[in-house]
Design brief:
mainly alpha; 2 strands
Length: about 325
């Protein structure tokens, strides 16, 4: 995204300053995650929405800080996710709990959440604080729902979508809405961007879950089939359950044999379940695109639309 390259570079510099801690282990743990890179999808979306709705096409200091806060919250959730899912690598490098231990990783995640809360409070905007605080509650809700439904063949697509909202889409929905609040936009505009973020976030998560089955470990930065190993039953698997009883048996046995994972992926790939999951992602993507195309056509929306299409094209 050419128009926001400067802002993204500044964001990376600021993130390192914002997570600076007195304790060298805490600093190393947090630093390690930022060094692992990442696509910076969330800050990119915040910057592009800021430019879209601001009359002067500029990104305010508060909106830049919001982008940084959002990325810190996202990173904190990944640290805790990796502990719960027992992931050894993320984006191709060792996870915090593997490099250190679970105790340090939990504290590093907590430290990042605390830092984000402190910077959030310093925005001095109660509505933004209320909106962003909800994300952290939703993360916890999503993790609990995922834990309760682990290796549960009775999970429905609706429950999977709800969990995906809590774990991923809530962050995008609330941060997009907060971007509009900081712009002093009216409630309708705030609601538009909340829905845009929600649908974009759901599409993003569903595609992530498809890639977990179809991608190569090298590209994913973690082993393929990680969701299956951890008992996270995602859309492609849920659609296959009614067609292949053998899959249910493997889930009930919690994939006790290593070759079960490859066999399960093979079974899923040989049905139309991946296409059905992709259709749901596309549906959410079209809803997000419709909001921008129908209501914000009068301004330069090309870059925001292109990031939206990018999320879908990750799978093609």
């Amino acid at each position: 995204m050419k128009s926001i390259q400067t802002e993204l570079k500044q964001l990376n510099r600021n993130l390192h300053k914002m997570i600076a801690a007195e304790n060298p282990i805490l600093y190393l743990a947090a630093e390690q995650l930022f060094n692992a890179g990442g696509k910076r999808i969330r800050p990119t979306v915040i910057f592009l929405i800021s430019k879209l709705i601001n009359k002067n096409k500029i990104i305010s200091t508060e909106q830049k800080r919001l982008a940084e806060i959002t990325e810190i919250i996202h990173t904190a959730s990944l640290v805790h996710d990796d502990i719960v899912d027992n992931c050894d690598t993320r984006r191709g490098i060792e996870t915090v709990h593997t490099a250190f231990n679970n105790k340090i990783a939990v504290l590093a995640g907590d430290f990042l959440f605390a830092q984000s809360s402190w910077y959030l409070a310093n925005l001095n905007n109660l509505n933004v604080v209320k909106t962003i605080s909800k994300i952290i509650t939703d993360f916890a809700e999503g993790e609990v729902q995922q834990g309760v439904k682990s290796f549960d063949c009775q999970i429905s697509v609706e429950e999977y979508i709800e969990k995906s909202f809590y774990k991923t889409a809530s962050l995008l929905a609330c941060s997009c809405k907060a971007t509009a609040i900081l712009n002093k936009s009216n409630k309708n505009i705030q609601n538009d961007f909340y829905l845009y973020g929600k649908h974009l976030g759901l599409a993003f998560q569903i595609i992530d879950d498809i890639l977990d089955l179809t991608g190569l470990s090298k590209e994913l930065g973690k082993p393929a089939g990680s969701d299956l190993i951890n008992g996270n039953l995602t859309a492609p698997l849920i659609f296959t359950l009614n067609k292949r009883s053998k899959l249910k048996k493997m889930i009930n046995q919690e994939f006790q044999f290593k070759e079960n994972i490859n066999e399960a992926i093979y079974i899923i790939k040989n049905t139309n379940s991946i296409q059905k999951a992709k259709d749901i992602a596309e549906e959410h993507m079209q809803l997000a695109i419709h909001i921008i195309k129908s209501k914000y056509y009068y301004t330069n929306n090309k870059e925001l639309l292109s990031i939206t299409y990018y999320v879908l094209n990750r799978i093609n």
